[in-house]
Amino acid sequence: MTTPNDVIDWLLDADPSIRWQVMRDLLDAPPEAWEAERARVETEGWGARLLSLEDDDGQWAGGAFVPRGFTPEQWKTLGQPWTATCFALAQLREFGLDPASPRARRIIDLVGRNARWDHDGQPYWEGEVEECINGRTVADGAYFGVDVSPIVERLVGERLADGGWNCERANGSVRSSFHTTINVLEGLLEFEKATGGTPASRAARRSGEEYLLERSLFRRRSTGKPADDAYLRFLHPNRYRYDVLRALDYFRAAARLTGAPPDPRLAESIDIVRAKRLADGKWHLDWSLRGPVWFELDAAPGQPSKWVTLRALRVLKWWDEAGARPVHETAATPAHHLRSAVTGGTIDEA
User: Whose CA is closest to 54, among 98, 92, 14?
Assistant: First the structure.
């Protein structure tokens, strides 16, 4: 895979939160170069803007998951809000805020002392009951240096028989969810980066990966058909939502930690990413989640997206440099059906 210089220039003409990742993941810049760029996240652009919106008590919008005073009627009318503390912390992690900085340390301490989950008033860094939320809490906590091992132990024990997780388990679900599984996997990976993990957490992470790989990242195991056409449409920020690009980026990050080669079962999803590349070397934002935000972080749906393009390019760079299997046509997914799937045709045709 080659990336035109003008695409790299377009990506570098962006917020520091994107620039430092382009430098590290696409340009192989030395650590001192991209680390200096990463340090600007705290004082410039989106990172500084989001930090400026922090409440005096360390929260955002006065709540852990839902803004203080946000009503069910507003949720119905406006959509789920994305402005409370858990979403702000996840965004700062994605931006790359230095977890060792005094500002980050202050935030994490204040959140631990003041934030309580909406579910039952649980202290923030103890997590709550829902696996999607707890997976993201583990990711944020591990990244920012919090001991989240009790939540990890709980998540390991909540794994379902098919190897993944489902946030509806408490309501009787016995089948895993793509959405919940990727949230938990990202948390377990961040925990492993920070601590080395435990034998149980590493085994759970491998079983969650196998759950996705057995389904080629988007297919039903029972029928082989795509489980949801939205899995083949790219969005940002993902929040809790799954898509194959998010999954591929997870597997790339896991490989950077463990040194494992790409699994051949990722090939079909890699082909989907390639097929969605525009003639100018960029990728569109296919859609975005409804609901209040502090400010927009990406292009409008249907427009070229720097976040999606960054993620797609680094996934393909990882795959190609590893010498993994190139674009293919399989009996399961003929080329004309693949093109139909990624351009809005009938997904069930695949």
Answer: 92
Euclidean distance between CA atoms 153 and 200, whole angstroms: 8
* pLDDT tens column, 222-267: 999 999 999 999 999 999 999 999 999 999 999 999 999 999 999 9
DSSP string covering 101-114: SHHHHHHHHHHHHH
Measured CA to CA, the distance from residue 98 to residue 147 in angstroms comes to 17
Give yes or no for a contact between 226 and 218, defined as CB atoms under 8 angstroms apart. Answer: yes
Q: pLDDT tens digits for 123-170? A: 999 999 999 999 999 999 999 999 999 999 999 999 999 999 999 998
Its pTM stands at: 0.91
Adjacent-strand bridge partners of 235: 287
Burial category of 117 from C-beta neighbours within 10 Å (exposed 0-12, middle 13-18, buried 19 and up): buried
Closest CA to 53 of 22, 82, 20, 94: 82
Neighbours of 300 (CB within 10 A): 10
Q: What is the DSSP letter of 125?
A: G
Burial of 48 per CB tally in 10 Å (0-12, 13-18, 19+): middle
